[in-house]
Amino acid sequence: MKQKLHRIFSYGTLAIKFDEALTVGLALDDELVVSNGQFDIPLKVISANISPTYPDILNVEVSKVFSYVADRKYTPRQIHDLNTHILNQQNMQIDAAQLPYEQNIVMSQIFWDTSMYHEMNDLDGEEFLYE
């Protein structure tokens, strides 16, 4: 079977824990670049808010589009496994200079929303629900 390029839209929440409480919500750039130790991964920032329960945690809703080549579409489980292999708590690095806060980052974790995976039909950004 012929190999085909597949483009996947992914959505998730990046939880960033700081060493002190954040007292004021500040605007973030539209893009947050994280690294997995091998390459940089730009994440589009959708929204960000300070956790009302834990004011030392900033929750950032992010999205990204990535591509893979295969002879068939991956299942949502395979896509989730690929996402968490590429970017996870153990390998994710964030340059604190990108954030408008003086507090130090203690840790970060990304939670991918498996119900939000979409395959992009073409390069103009049209998409459909991944099934």
Describe the fold and architecture:
- The chain is mainly beta and 131 residues long.
- It is built from 1 helix and 8 strands; from the N terminus they run ββββαββββ.
- The protein has one helix at residues 76-86; strands at 4-18, 31-35, 40-50, 57-70, 93-94, 105-112, 118-120, 127-129.
- Strands 1, 2, 3, 4, 5, 6, 7 and 8 form an 8-stranded antiparallel sheet that branches.
- The radius of gyration is 16 Å and the shape is elongated.
SSE arrangement:
Layout: E1 4-18, E2 31-35, E3 40-50, E4 57-70, H1 76-86, E5 93-94, E6 105-112, E7 118-120, E8 127-129
Identify the overall geometry. Answer: elongated
Number of helices: 1
Largest sheet: 8 strands, antiparallel
Low-confidence stretches: 124-131
Report mean pLDDT, rounded to a whole number.
86
Alpha-carbon Rg, integer: 16 Å
**Helical residues, percent:** under 10%
Number of strands: 8
Strand percent estimate: over 45%
Q: What is the N-to-C order of secondary-structure elements (H for helix, E for strand)?
A: EEEEHEEEE
Q: Cα distance, first to last residue?
A: 21 Å
Secondary structure class reads mainly beta
Question: What distinguishing features does this structure have?
Answer:
eight-stranded antiparallel β-sheet; single chain; 8% helix; disordered C terminus; 131 residues; 1 helix; mainly beta
